[in-house]
Design a protein that fits this description.
By secondary structure, the chain is an alpha+beta fold. The chain is built from two helices and three strands, in the order H-E-E-H-E. Helices cover about 30% and strands about 20% of the residues. Helix 1 packs antiparallel against helix 2.
Length: about 80
């Protein structure tokens, strides 16, 4: 997806208090986002991720909620 990783980073920074990572998966068309934070902020972040950046087509979003591991200091792209 065109610009999706940068979009996810920008939205996490805009919302604030979102920690985690975003990366492309090996299939070349799937982006994985792992995020931790307060539920209300994560839900806002998720709504933005469902829309995505301009010129990108978000075909679907799979959501898996779990217990935060506390392993992230900020939000970053993994290359």
């Amino acid at each position: 997806m065109v610009g999706y990783r940068l979009f996810a980073e920008t939205e996490a920074d805009r919302i604030g208090e979102i920690r985690g990572s975003v990366r492309n998966l090996p299939d070349g068309s799937t982006v994985e986002v792992i995020a931790e934070g307060r539920r209300v902020l994560l839900e806002e972040f998720l709504e933005e991720l469902k829309i995505g950046p301009a010129h990108a087509l978000v075909r679907g979003v799979e959501i898996e909620w779990g217990v935060a591991a506390g392993e992230f200091d900020g939000f970053a792209t993994i290359y």
